Amino acid sequence: MARLLAHFVNDNQTDWEAKLPLAELVINSHVNETTTYPPFTVVFGRDMPTPARDDLTLSPSIEPYALQVEELRETLKQLWEEVDRMHTLHSSRAKDRHDRSCNAPSFAVRDMVYLYTPAVKKGKTKKFNKFWAGPYKIVKVHSDQNVTLKMGRRETRVHTSRLKPFISQQSTSDCGQQSEDGSGNSEPDASSRNDPIISPSPVAVQTTRARVNPTYQLRDIRRINYNPSGSNH
After folding, report:
1. Which CATH architecture has domain 104-172?
2. At a CB cut-off of 8 Å and minimum separation 6, what does 148 contact?
3. Could you tell me which residues belong to the region Disordered (predicted)?
4. Are 152 and 134 contacting, i.e. CB atoms less than 8 angstroms apart?
């Protein structure tokens, strides 16, 4: 529920109560990955009546009360048995996936990664917090467990358990392409590493005319002889 609300609440996390009924409707009517049935169907033994599914021109048929109870009891029994079977199967598959991916991914310098940041800012709740920050670039690999990230102007050493790879659409589209310059330079280009490719933006060229200094003509200065006695000659 919290993960679903985190996508719709505002930045101040103040309108989550208004989005709660809609989120509850989505969860109760959505097919559960483990049970393969919506939660509403598992509880009540029938599909959730929604405006999209209701036929407002026809009234539902009325069955005898006893027959309805017996059919509902049998339906719920079958559903619960199927839910138990699917839950056991899903748990086994989840364990297999975890065992196959238990090895931590290896990171290299210049890889772009997301950093898990569980800290919650003051005034916000943990339920709606976005825990993955980044992406950041790896500038140094100390071991399989520790790397140094470039985070703005500072570099921070973190544990690899807090990292997950960042895969951009640009890097996936350029996968498999090789450099055609033939220079033999061992430095990998931007398409062979995980650096985000930033195309240069056009620079506006402003043409200015050369400034012409104005010319001034000096007037003749009349020479005046100063006499301390107060008389001019």
Report:
1. Roll (2.30)
2. 138, 139, 140, 141, 142, 155, 156, 157, 158
3. 153-212
4. no
**Distance (Å, rounded) from C-alpha 139 to C-alpha 161?**
17
CB-count exposure of residue 4 (10 Å: 0-12, 13-18, 19+): middle
Model pTM? 0.33
Give the mean model confidence (pLDDT) for residues 43-65: 62
The pair of three-digit structure tokens given for residue 40, joined into one six-digit string:
């509403």
Which amino acid does the sequence have at 161?
S
Q: Provide the H-helix boundaries in the chain.
A: 2-6, 16-29, 39-44, 65-100, 169-173
**d(C-alpha 160, C-alpha 144), whole Å:** 7
191 DSSP assignment: G
> Residue 215 has what pLDDT?
57
Looking at the chain, the domain(s) classified CATH 2.30.30.140 span 104-172
Report pLDDT digits (tens) over 121-159: 787 777 777 788 878 888 988 888 889 998 888 888 988
CA dihedral 164, 170, 171, 173 (to 10 degrees): 130
